[in-house]
Amino acid sequence: MIDFRPFYQQIATTHLSPWLETLPLQMKQWQQQTHGEYAKWAKVVEFLPHLSASRIDLKSAVKSECDSALSDGERQRIIHHLKQLMPWRKGPYHLLGIHVDCEWRSDFKWDRVLPHLAPLQDRTILDVGCGSGYHMWRMVGEGAKMVVGIDPTELFLCQFEAVRKLLNDDRRANLIPLGIEQMQPLAAFDTVFSMGVLYHRKSPLDHLSQLRAQLVNGGELVLETLVVDGDENTVLVPMDRYAKMKNVYFIPSVAALIHWLQKTGFKNVRCVDVAVTSLEEQRKTDWLENESLIDFLDPADHSKTIEGYPAPKRAVILANK
């Protein structure tokens, strides 16, 4: 099973040390209640071979390389193990010559977000709803001192640990299987990311307040979420599903989202990017057995979802505590 003790040791002498009052007990309880597949997924990580990479690139990609190419047997063994952890949603990863072609080209989003951020060099960062951790590695590539991702999905934890193993067991990033509502207010992170989470929250203002509670004074929030066109009173509340997703509750306009952030105490709130999700950014691959964006859109009109709502459009909002 995945061992969180190295992370506890890592934060024991930092300003994250108050987290140790609650986190070890939470992780002990979590391990007693894990998904039936978790043991199998954790074994997959354990079975991955220890092959040291000679070069690692986290600045322009998430990539590890060896001086000598893998044998066909080694390559097929690693692919077999990684495919036991499907579906791979956020990526892509280039690991020892193996291209894990994930559903989402998360590098597209990173390229839209990065130019607008306060420099990440030497920052302590929280990535809420981090998935398998793709963006966490890119944050490390920008010089972050420590990146902590939280996501309660056990498969994502095992995907993250598999990637970490093929990146020479890099400890600058760590994934903790919690939701933000389970975190005590640490007020310890220089930058907090919440990307693709807000529309899954039944209480979006509570989510924004929880994000604010994790930031140091002056710290930066990076919020990326679905939006619709309209004024500050425009909010879409889907009746049943949105793009075949059951757990979508509130999709605000950019103006409404800015108003929500101001209402929860954020300052210097500004929208830095709006982009319609393209069929190049989210698509089916060999690393995904499920449906993808093309299946969620009206086949006769890609400007609408299959339910008739506006097709996915995403905004990036920055704000400060």
From TrEMBL:
Keyword set, alphabetical order: Methyltransferase, Transferase, tRNA processing
Molecular function via GO: methyltransferase activity; transferase activity, transferring alkyl or aryl (other than methyl) groups
Binding site for carboxy-S-adenosyl-L-methionine: K90, W104, K109, G129, D151, P152, T153, I180, E181, M195, Y199, R314
Reactions performed catalytically: carboxy-S-adenosyl-L-methionine + 5-hydroxyuridine(34) in tRNA = 5-carboxymethoxyuridine(34) in tRNA + S-adenosyl-L-homocysteine + H(+)
Enzyme class: transferase
EC number: 2.5.1.-
Transferase recorded as keyword: yes
Subunit structure, as described in the record: Homotetramer.
Family named by the database record: Belongs to the class I-like SAM-binding methyltransferase superfamily. CmoB family.
Protein name: tRNA U34 carboxymethyltransferase
Classification of source organism: Bacteria, Pseudomonadati, Pseudomonadota, Gammaproteobacteria, Pasteurellales
